[in-house]
Amino acid sequence: MDEHLDELLARARESVGLDAHIGFVVDEVSGERVTGTLTITSDHHQPFGIVHGGTYCALAESAASVSAFCWLQETGIGGTAVGVNNSTDFLRSVSDGVISVSTSPIHRGRRQQLWQVDMTDEQGRLVAQSRVRMANIEL
Asked: Which residues are known catalytic residues?
């Protein structure tokens, strides 16, 4: 594996940029699944004291992007993946606690990928679910 690719894979396992800003911590990383957590604070709330929907969208985009990128590297296809659609359903309101995030592949092909992202509360209840479509592109 070349040095540049090693650097990209290490970066995929870190919380940087928006992930670091919102506090998304990645626990497990692979082309099969990404898991992580977000501890809810008032910074994640919309004006009525519950988690802002954009928080869930951002978590889904980040987790799916890392999953898609890792799968491309693990299969030898290479390149990276960028989000082209993010459809997130908000199922249960949350004001505090820890949100767990996990990805699972729905479709992985030469040109695109589709990932499901489940977000659950501390009781294991589904609070939001996303489908994120990724376009595979050359680096």
From this structure: 61
Q: Which amino acid is at 122?
A: E
pLDDT digit string (tens) for 121-136? 999 999 999 999 999 9
Between the two ends of the chain, the Cα-to-Cα distance in Å is 15
What is the band of 9 on the pLDDT scale with cuts at 50, 70, 90? Answer: low
Q: How far apart (Å, rounded) are the C-alpha atoms in residues 40 and 45?
A: 8
Spatial separation of the C-alpha atoms in residues 15 and 83, rounded to whole Å: 18
Q: What is the pLDDT of residues 45-54, one digit of tens each?
A: 999 999 999 9
pLDDT tens, 62-87? 999 999 999 999 999 999 999 999 99
Torsion sign (Cα): 74, 78, 83, 87: negative
Using DSSP, state whether 58 is helix, strand or coil. Answer: helix
Helices (H), the chain: 3-12, 17-22, 53-75
Parallel, antiparallel or unpaired: strands 126-137 and 80-90: antiparallel
